[in-house]
Amino acid sequence: MSEPLLEVEDLRTQFFTEDGVVRAVDGISFTVNEGEIVGLVGESGAGKSVAASSIMRLVEQPGEIVGGEIRFKGETIFGLEDVERDGDGPPEKVPRDDMLSNAEVRERIRGREIAIIFQDPMESLNPVFTVGGQLREFIEINRDLPENEARDLAVHMLREVGIPEAEERYDDYPHQFSGGMRQRVLIAMALACEPSLIIADEPTTALDVTVEGQILDLVDDLQGKYDTSFIWVTHDMGVVAEICDRVNVMYLGEIVEQADVDSLFHDTQHPYTKALLNSIPRPDQSVGELNPIAGVMPEAINPPSGCRFHTRCPEAREVCTRTHPGCREVGDGDGPHRAACLKHEGVFNAGYVESESIENKTTGGFDVGLTEEGEADD
Amino acid sequence: MGIYRYTIRRLLQAIPVLLGIITITFLLSDAIPGDPVQIMLGPSPSQAQIEAIRAKYGLNQPLYVRYGNYVWGLLHGDLGESLYYQVPVLLKIKQRLPATLLLLISSFAFAIVTAIPLGVISAKRRNKPTDHISRVIALVGVSTPSFWIGLMMILIFVYHLGWFESTGLVIPWEGPGPLIAPGNQAAALGAWTDHLVESARHLLLPTLSLGTLQMAAITRIERSSMLEVLSEDYVQLARAYGVSERTILRKHAFRNAQLPVITLIGLQITAAIGGAVLTETVFAINGMGTLIVNSIYRQDFPTIMGTTFFYGLVFVIGVIVTDISYAYVDPRVTYGEAE
Ligand SMILES: Nc1ncnc2c1ncn2[C@@H]1O[C@H](COP(=O)(O)OP(=O)(O)OP(=O)(O)O)[C@@H](O)[C@H]1O
Ligand code: SF4
Ligand SMILES: [Mg+2]
To answer: A143 and chain B: CB distance < 8 Å anywhere?
Structure first.
């Protein structure tokens, strides 16, 4: 296996709102190796975008990274250490000496090493500047090229991502581009800066299916050509299957399952992942047969006790309401496979087997799971 | 569509607006009770005198003829003759317009020059002391009537401190003789300097009095608009590509944030024209405001109509300038496909 490019350890990002503390990202750990496409999957509100902006230290007020460590190519993007306070009280957390300063993150990391493609192509380009001008500006900043060379490269990149008549379109404004075209421009921006890692935050969600397919193909091509690593944020398991090498499944600020894409799909270890997989529409289903995940995800401001998924989990037992499972190795064979579910009694030893099943009324598409559970209960 | 074609289209669109203003003022002055002839001639004029005056001003003709004559006159730059001053209305307006324009322009200049930095800084330092101070200033500014500000300033700076003047304006460009005076250049320059200082001493208080409201309103919208733009995805994207906070503020966010500000400034023009009437009264400025108010007292219809028309003209030009600035800033408008 190749070297880890990015290591995220126990990352915690919180928003201090008037209603209370939103624990948007609550202790996630994962790595990205060189040349890999790593998926970050989960429902809306799981904390995927917050995780993405944390990695680039782009979290805005009232949000703040409150703990954990982010290392990139041996540099510390984020890291805290304890300092004893005068008098009593717990030690204070302060940035470590080796943590990059704001200016260093801006100059050395953002754009140059890690680039991001946002969720909404319609909102991500500045409406009052030309498309080419915006692309050129980012190239100038991150590739140290003079204006005319940056311009040539910008036109080249526009061509590369399949914008027809790139030379002429260079001076157009974003409103003259369709959604798919704008997304291509955003991809061109990311690639043109030649970063080692691109974070794609649901880059195809706002697009229709045919355009989505084209964009995925494009990224596949270009990824091979430029050998860039990707973190691919999505809530679509279909997309994950198509492009990812490894996957992290997020639920309410936590990673609940982590595995390479084959074992995640064929040897699923977490009920939430199972539910996500069941919810992928298949061509042989009618709309009525769709299996959306039952219930809604609770608020990150006041997450459920124990296992956070227990309010919706078809396999939930009484112990799940009390005991919080961390993400542990549960795999039985090749490659790491981690999951945060107490049903792996051999790993967690929490007394799941003896514990009583609890009813989750909103069972939706979990019939299979329920029967299994019933059998285990006997 | 290019910006030039857009400008021409906006100018052409102004014609019906002006025609509307003319028609409405004409009809209104006809409908208002009271007979100007009576006012001109005193308590008990003879029938013959009345007839003569009516004939002289064309008041004995039917409405549509008078309307036609009026519009025809307007096209030739003839606004009729003032019943009170007995001089052409256009002449009167030419005398009074500079003071009002000076007041309007200087108070808008003051408002824009102070409000935009204030609003931007406020947004940049959101919820920090600077922001709180600027927000309090803006709140006080929008909630205090401009004539009251004027009166208070006269009390403090004119009566107590004696720093400024409180009556009339000195028009800066109507200077004391030629600026280039061969042989006596030093004296000419000196006279001009004194003149400009005098002009500033007269202009400052009315400008502050009229401009404070504008300043406060623009500050508030500038702040909220900057805050909104600073949280847009495209600003976040610029940050993600390593653009410095300074460049983001000055380039990426600033231009977008000006769109609502421009709209507001356009709307403020109407408010300022009204405010100018009060300001002129408080500071005893012989401008359009006092002219129109006095003409209403005197039922001097030609003057009322003429001044109203000119106010309409100032307003329409203001709106066109606003629209063109908007189109200049926002490429979506220029191409006629506003989203
Ligand atoms: N600026 C903010 N202030 C307060 N809470 C926030 C803020 N931004 C995000 N959150 C909260 O953080 C949590 C995670 O949000 P996030 O945007 O990361 O979700 P996501 O997984 O990206 O979802 P989606 O698929 O909708 O993009 C949510 O509960 C959200 O309400
Ligand atoms: S720990 Fe319990 S509630 Fe949580 S996923 Fe596993 S079975 Fe479901
Ligand atoms: Mg998101």
So the answer is: no
CB of A63 within 6 A of ligand 2: the answer is no
Which candidate from B232, B241, B255 shows the least CB-CB separation from A110? B241
Taking CB atoms and an 8 Å limit, are A118 and B337 in contact across chains?
no
Within 8 A by CB and 6+ apart from B321, the residues are none
Dihedral angle over CA of B176, B179, B180, B186, nearest 10: 80
Q: How far apart are CA A240 and CA A258, in angstroms?
A: 13
Query: Exposed (0-12), middle (13-18) or buried (19+): which is B281, by Cβ within 10 Å?
Result: middle
Tell me the C-alpha distance between B31 and B301, whole Å.
11
Environment class of residue A333 by beta-carbon count within 10 Å: exposed (0-12), middle (13-18) or buried (19+)? exposed
Provide the token pair at B76. Answer: 């030739």
Ligand 2 neighbourhood includes A343 CB (under 6 angstroms) = yes
Domain boundaries, chain B: 89-297
Residues paired with A121 in a beta bridge: none
The strand pair at A4-17 and A63-72 is best described as: antiparallel
What is the per-residue pLDDT for A290? Answer: 63
> Which residues are within 8 A (CB) of B53 and not within 5 positions of it... i.e. 6 or more apart?
B37, B40, B41, B59
- Mean model confidence pLDDT for chain A: 88
Asked if A128 and B255 come within 8 Å (Cβ–Cβ), the reply is yes
Taking chain B (339 residues) in runs of 10, the rounded mean pLDDT of each run is 80 89 85 70 76 76 86 87 88 91 93 94 90 90 87 88 83 78 80 87 91 93 94 94 94 93 89 88 90 87 88 88 87 57
Cβ contact A343:A351 at 8 Å: no
Single-letter amino acid, residue A255:
I
Q: A262: closest CA among A334, A170, A197, A353?
A: A334
Tokens of A228: 């860039």
Phi, psi of A27 (to 5 degrees): 90, 55
B89-297: CATH architecture: Orthogonal Bundle (1.10)
| CA A96 – CA A85 distance, rounded (Å) | 16
B-chain CB neighbours of A132 within 8 Å are: none
Please report which helix (H) or strand (E) contains residue A7, including its range: strand A4-17
Global ipTM: 0.87
Q: CA–CA separation, B189 vs B331, rounded Å? A: 46
**Are the C-beta atoms of residues A169 and A161 closer than 8 Å to each other?**
no
Picking from A163, A171, A115, A180, the residue whose alpha carbon sits closest to that of residue A142 is A115
A123 touches chain B (CB under 8 A): yes
The whole-angstrom separation of Cα A89 and Cα B314 is 68
Q: Is the CB of A342 under 6 A from ligand 2?
A: yes
A116 touches chain B (CB under 8 A): yes
Break chain A into its structural domains and give their ranges.
280-377
Asked if A18 is an interface residue toward chain B (Cβ–Cβ < 8 A), one would say: no
Query: 10 Å Cβ neighbour count for B46?
Result: 9
